[in-house]
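Tokens for chain A. Residues wanted.
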């Protein structure tokens, strides 16, 4: 924006930055749209629905090709990447408490692939300007079926907050206004701190309730630089954005209601963040916290462990969290041919865990699949910590302990040093005693101990 003052033209730098950001996004961050309309056989004629599950009226005007009804619609062949239409600042309506000027970004599912890492890096560092984290905390758990006791919720929220504040952590969730994601948003909203904790939601554009409100073309005429989004009860199968997350990625594959498309992008973004903030060639440490949850949470947990990160499971929170805890407490290790070790459940314990699966997930017919996944996770025993509210220490202590315990003798010295600096920053003397003075997992040299002493000063 420019205004005349005598012979001078004064430029508002904030508006110039917004223009620069808008231009950069439109050139670098695309979305996916269905561009080949195939009418579903049972769709009404007045505004028919395509196999992408979008109505004809919301397909791209002037670019969509009408295809014969007997065409076979595929996501890869019938959608294209197009210029971004939904990004920027967002303000939430119909809610008492919300983050001021959060940021959101609709983004094509493709950006979870390696060629796009640099663009995500630029977005986060140069435009969103997030301060470097000391830890990445990924929270996974139940959404609409969430039924967890108040004591466990309070313990989770306080432990998460303590961990995030004391380590300058970033938090990642699914970003919805329900379940464990709302718990995270609520505690962040109540936080009085000089530093706003970056809390990043990674959701599904096609399952976001009232996503048309997020389109730039639908912004209010009196606020063209900000999107106003209503927080309200969504229709079945959709989710409202949580108003207390600082940033939202909305992953888009060109469809509506296609479940789970965001998980690959989420895993890739978490890995990118850990790579972005390397110190001495050591990745940023990451921990995943599981509270209650369903099959998707097990898949996220397995991916977390396969990538060398740690998992903390809240015992007593229900559903897959409790099923996983039961497996850890009752499985036994056997040695197979070739010396390979793996964990199995004795026959009585397997019967019992099947009852637990049947009780919570019987209608989905996934008993065998879930049991196999639980057993695979149990093989990462050194990287999984079980937390109960009856434990002698709070959750934040176990989050840090999980990072330290997983750092066994095979981990390079630089990684151990980074984790010990994290422990010192956190101020947990008990962990320092356990991992420095006992030196059970890694023997620090005199020079390393001197470095740690000066760091603590």
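Reply:
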């Amino acid at each position: 924006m420019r205004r005349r003052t005598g012979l001078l033209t004064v430029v508002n730098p904030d508006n110039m930055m917004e223009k620069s950001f808008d231009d950069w996004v439109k050139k670098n961050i695309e979305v996916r749209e269905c561009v080949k309309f195939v009418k579903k056989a049972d769709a009404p004629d007045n505004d028919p629905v395509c196999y992408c599950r979008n109505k004809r009226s919301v397909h791209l005007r002037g670019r969509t090709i009408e295809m014969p009804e007997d065409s076979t619609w595929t996501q890869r062949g019938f959608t294209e990447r197009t210029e971004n239409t939904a990004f920027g600042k967002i303000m939430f309506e119909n809610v008492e408490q919300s983050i001021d000027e959060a940021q959101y970004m609709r983004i094509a599912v493709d950006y979870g692939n390696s060629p796009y890492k640099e663009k995500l890096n630029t977005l986060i560092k140069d435009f969103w300007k997030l301060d470097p984290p000391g830890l990445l905390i990924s929270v996974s758990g139940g959404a609409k079926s969430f039924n967890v006791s108040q004591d466990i919720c309070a313990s989770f929220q306080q432990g998460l907050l303590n961990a995030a504040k004391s380590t300058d952590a970033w938090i990642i969730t699914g970003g919805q206004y329900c379940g464990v994601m709302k718990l995270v948003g609520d505690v962040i909203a109540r936080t009085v701190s000089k530093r706003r904790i970056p809390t990043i939601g990674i959701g599904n554009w096609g399952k976001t309730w009232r996503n048309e409100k997020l389109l730039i073309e639908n912004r209010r005429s009196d606020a063209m630089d900000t999107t106003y989004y209503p927080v309200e009860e969504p229709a079945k199968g959709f989710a409202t954005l949580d108003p207390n997350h600082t940033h939202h990625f909305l992953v888009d594959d060109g469809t509506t209601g296609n479940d789970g498309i965001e998980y690959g992008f989420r895993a890739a973004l978490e890995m990118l963040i850990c790579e972005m903030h390397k110190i001495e060639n050591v990745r940023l440490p990451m921990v995943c916290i599981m509270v209650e949850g369903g099959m998707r949470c097990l898949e996220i947990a397995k991916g977390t462990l396969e990538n060398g990160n740690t998992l903390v499971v809240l015992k007593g929170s229900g559903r897959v969290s409790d099923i996983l805890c039961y497996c850890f407490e009752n499985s036994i290790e056997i040695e197979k041919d070739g010396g390979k070790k793996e964990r199995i459940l004795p026959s009585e314990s397997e019967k019992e865990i099947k009852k637990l699966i049947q009780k919570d997930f019987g209608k989905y017919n996934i008993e065998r699949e879930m049991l196999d996944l639980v057993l695979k996770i149990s093989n990462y025993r050194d990287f999984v910590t079980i937390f109960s509210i009856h434990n002698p220490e709070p959750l934040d202590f176990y989050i840090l302990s999980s990072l330290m315990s997983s750092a066994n003798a095979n981990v390079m010295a630089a990684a151990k040093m980074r984790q010990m600096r994290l422990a010192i920053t956190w101020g947990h003397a008990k962990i320092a005693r356990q991992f420095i003075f006992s030196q059970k997992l890694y023997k620090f040299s005199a020079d390393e101990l001197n470095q740690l002493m000066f760091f603590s000063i």
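The chain has a mean pLDDT of 86. DSSP finds 14 helices and 18 strands in the chain.
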